[in-house]
Structures are given as structure tokens and as C-alpha cells.
Amino acid sequence: MQILDGKALAKKIEDRVAVDAKTLKETTGRTPGLAVILVGNDPASHAYVSMKKKACDRVGFYSVTHEMPADISQDAIENTIKMMNQNTSIDGILIQLPLPPQVDTTKLLELVAPNKDVDGFHPYNVGRLTTGLEGFVPCTPLGVMELLKEYNIDPKGMNAVVVGASNIVGKPMAALLLNADATVQITHIYTKDLKACTLNADIILVGAGVINLIKEDMVKEGAIVIDIGINRAPDGKLVGDVDFKNVSSKCSFITPVPGGVGPMTIAMLLQNTLRAAQAHAKES
Questions:
Q1: Class of domain 28-115
Q2: What is the mean pLDDT of residues 16-29?
Q3: Distance (Å, whole) CA 36 – CA 52
Q4: Candidate list 20, 91, 96, 202, residue with the active-site label
Q5: pLDDT score recorded for residue 82
Q6: What is the SS3 assignment for the chain?
Q7: Known catalytic membership, residue 119
Q8: Residues 138, 119: contact at Cβ < 8 Å?
Q9: pLDDT of 88 over the 80 cut
């Protein structure tokens, strides 16, 4: 069994992004800029945004966070997004999810300019991913693919089971695997026999938000297990969706939580923002 070390790879990618950002500034005068919309007081959202801000600082990006109260109006958020779309110093726009119930999340995501959609959630970029065209890809599944590549794991021809069908992780993860010539099955809350699906999988990718959802008897010998879940256990520890202690002994490769997919998500956000800045520099 080998651990897929996302923390180490994320550091390598960050270092590379920092060098490229410095080169971009020296050659074009442009500093990559990321703007974040943060609504309400959700502790997890604030923690994530803080981590993203620190990562931007480490690689020399300009970043700004628009903090808004939980009872903010739809119009106020829309006006902020429109302002950021027009701001030439902003290359990437990120709307921290989830948003309060009174807010139309879909409408806001559609309002972000596709060339600044570094989260890859705009329907334009979703469509390009689905059809195998170049575009911005959601950071978490993109990070998983980079992690597989780092360890020379080629999904081509593999039976891949994606557990969880969210627009943020499950669906784009499946699209990336399909584009990489894997045979892909998506499972979700209405799947009748999850164990029957996962037992046939060469690679299991789980992001369902359920502690210990994937147990030892659900994984075949030698399978690759990618744990995308992140949960707070009753004892306060961060854990994934996989029973790591018992499942790991059966795996050829497995990601830990924390230290696996999580750091890769932020690394891919930086990489996407740099790409956007490089494209904007060519246009100006």
C-alpha cells in the first residue's frame, strides 16, 4: 500500500506557480488576482477562504475577499460580481459555497465571466469539460487527476466508481475519468447496492460527506481508493469518507485525510488563476 501524498505535491505545484507568477509580472507587469465572495458566518467557509488567502500570499498573487452578511440581497451580490467581471486586475472570481437559502446560487455562478471562472462551475466550462475541450475544471477533481498523474496511475481501461454525484465533485470527476478513457459508474444516495458497485472497482473515488461510508468489505484487493470527503468526527478530528485504518491494508494506493486531496484543491485554484492571468496578459 502506498499513500498518495497530496500535501507534498501541492507544495511542488505552489512553488512552480510562484515562479511562473513572478515571470508573468516581470514580463507583462501583471500580478495574478483572485477575488472571493464570502457570504455569512459559516466557520468552515471562513476557514477555507482564509487558507486560500494565505496560499495566494505565498505565491505572490493579489487577492481580495468580499465579506457579506448572511441576509445580503441577491442584487447586492450580483452587483459585486458584475463589478469584478469588469475589474481588469481580477483574473479569477470564486464564490464560496454554500450560500444562504435566499440566494439563487445557480444564477450567481452563471453571472461569473467564463474566463474568470477559476472554480469551473459556469455552464460554459462545464460543457467544455463534458465534451473534452479546454476550459476551467473544478479544482477538487482536477487535483485528483494531478495526484494520479504524479504517481503514474493511468485510469485508462480501469473500472472507476465515483461515490457522490454533486456538481462540484462527483459529476466533473466522472467526466475527467471518462475523458481519460476509464469505464465510469456514478453512485449516489439512491444507488440500491453500493457495495456491489465498489467491489468491482479498480479505483474508487468517494466524496459523499459520510464518515466511514467505504468499509473494508466494500473494496477489492489491490484497489486504488481516493477519499475526497472531509468530515469532523465526534472527537474533533478531521476524517474522510473511508474507514482508512481497515481499508488501507487492501489498497495498492490510498489518499489520507487530511493531507490527500484537500491540499490539491487549493493548488489547483492557484494554477487555474495563473492560467487566467496568463490568458488575460496576452489579450491586453
A1: alpha beta
A2: 97
A3: 9
A4: 96
A5: 98
A6: CEECCHHHHHHHHHHHHHHHHHHHHHHHCCCCEEEEEEECCCHHHHHHHHHHHHHHHHHCCEEEEEEECCCCCHHHHHHHHHHHHHCCCCCEEEECCCCCCCCCHHHHHHHCCHHHCCCCCCHHHHHHHHCCCCCCCCHHHHHHHHHHHHCCCCCCCCEEEEECCCCCCHHHHHHHHHHCCCEEEEECCCCCCHHHHHCCCCEEEECCCCCCCECHHHCCCCCEEEECCCEECCCCCEECCECHHHHHHHCCEECCCCCCHHHHHHHHHHHHHHHHHHHHHHHC
A7: yes
A8: yes
A9: yes
Pick the CATH number of 139-262 from 3.90.950.20, 3.40.50.720, 3.30.70.360, 3.90.180.10: 3.40.50.720
Place of cell 465572495: 37
- Examine the pLDDT at 284 and tell me if it is beyond 80: no
User: Which grid coordinates are listed for 215?
Assistant: 468499509
Q: How confident is the model at residue 13 (pLDDT cuts 50, 70, 90)?
A: very high
**Catalytic site residue from 52, 91, 116, 117:** 52
| 28-115 and 139-262 share one fold | yes
Domain boundaries, the chain: 28-115, 139-262
C-alpha span between 51 and 44 (Å, rounded): 11
Q: What is the mean pLDDT of residues 130-136?
A: 96
Task: Express each pLDDT in 210-262 by its tens digit.
Answer: 999 999 999 999 999 999 999 988 998 989 999 999 999 999 999 999 999 99
Q: Which three cell numbers stand for residue 157?
A: 481501461
Residues 6+ apart with CB under 8 A from 41: 70
Q: Which of 20, 91, 117, 119 is catalytic?
A: 119
Which tens digit of pLDDT belongs to each residue from 49-83? 999 999 999 999 999 999 999 999 999 999 999 99
